[in-house]
Amino acid sequence: MVLKLLDKQIIEDGNAWESLILDCFITRYKTIHNVQPIDADPGDGGIEGFISNGIVWQCYAPKDSNLSNDDLYKALIKKITEDIKKLYKVDNITLYKSVGVPLIKEWHFITPRYTGQKILSHLQKKQQEVRKKIRDDKLTHIDPNFIVSIKDANEFKTEINQLYINNLLSLDFKLHSLPIDYEDCDSEKKENIRRKNNSLASPHLLPYLVDLNVKQYLKYLAFETKLLAIESLRERFIGSVEQLKTGTTMALLRSTDYKITYNQQIDIIKDNLLFDFNNIFSSSEAFDISNMIMSKWLADCNLDFLIQEDGE
């Protein structure tokens, strides 16, 4: 889900959320329709902007992104009910005409997330209310077949992806809080990690390093899953990782000192990440990811290290 990659400041700050959605609409429609924001001073008339195809939109980002589903539902219902009424206020109709709003065909309510079917039922109710208002008051600025819909962050997955690729949006990968599930590391993977660490670590450190590498391996899997939200980046990243893993295998096959070569590979991977993904990963993120990649290599590769006896 793309929402998990957005910085918390974006999804809890109304202005930042509005700015993101405007950029998303411009990215989506820039070659086929005009996208025009409406200045909120002295008032936006219940809409943040309009598109020349008849879509108008209203944004809402609760200040607390961790609201329970019930509290979120109540907050969304309240905001929708308040804002949709603004569409047929006399002062707002005048505003729409003055800024060039076309015949309003659709009203999109855009929020970071919503859950459940009750919100959709409420939207249908409001849609019917507006349509009745159009008939009763003979309103000409709203299409008789007016549509109300709700959109969340995932609706703009493609546009957010593009903004990210173009370095117009920074994402928070939350590397230090990636979820791990020990069931995702089977016995073969763990044995690969243990066997290689047996050649790299002192016996008293072996249990600690095995556990650490298992955790890093599982964090890598969680990170790769998170990248599903940014498909083009995920494809590039996975391709780069496979090359780096192959390079690691070749380097260690030629090595006369596994420990030194292993540590060198972590630095090499970090430098490659910073070069290949410039302006995407910070230096600290690249370091964390390089350790995750090395742990994945330990788990995936069946290569055995030879353990030299003292004196050899």
If you had to describe this structure to a student in words, what would you say it looks like?
The chain is of the alpha/beta class. The protein folds into two domains: 2-159, Restriction Endonuclease (3-Layer(aba) Sandwich), CATH 3.40.91; 173-300, no CATH class. Helices cover 55% and strands 9% of the residues. It has eleven helices and five strands; from the N terminus they run ααβββααβαβαααααα. The protein has helices at residues 8-12, 14-29, 69-84, 90-99, 118-137, 157-165, 187-200, 206-226, 231-253, 258-276, 283-300; strands spanning 35-37, 49-51, 55-59, 104-110, 142-151. A five-stranded mixed sheet has the order 1-2-3-4-5, with helices on both faces. A hairpin with a 3-residue loop joins strand 2 (49-51) and strand 3 (55-59). Helix 3 packs parallel to helix 5, helix 7 packs across helix 8 and helix 7 crosses helix 11. It starts with 7 loop residues before the first helix and ends in a 12-residue tail after the last helix.
What keywords describe this structure?
312 residues, alpha/beta, Restriction Endonuclease, 2 domains, 5 strands
